[in-house]
Amino acid sequence: MCLFPALFMDLVVTIYQAICFRAYGIPRVVRGDYFVIDRHNLQYLNPVEKMNCIYCGYFNGLIAYVQEIAARTEQYWCPIKHARKLASIHSRYYKFIEYGDSATYQDRLEEVRRDLSDLQPGG
Question: Where are the alpha helices (DSSP H) in 1-123?
């Protein structure tokens, strides 16, 4: 039942980054870097297990792809760390300004917003 909402989310997020990332000069996330669907090729899996491997490879790849798009979006629009510790942080979070540090925020917002030098063009 989750497949159709996942496909819709995949479509919407891909269109979003194609338009918005291009408009704001944010390097686009390379979709193929996040989707690995290969375990269904294992001969020792039965057909149901193979189908489950395809689904899991797609869905976990989608979540990672969406998280990276969200991370780059957050770095551009709101690069401020949260007040409390997060259970999991994304790839861009270490660049963010400390919570409550208004002076640094005012002084470094544009710098942090544009600090994408560690990303390859188009990815």
Answer: 3-16, 22-24, 47-77, 102-114
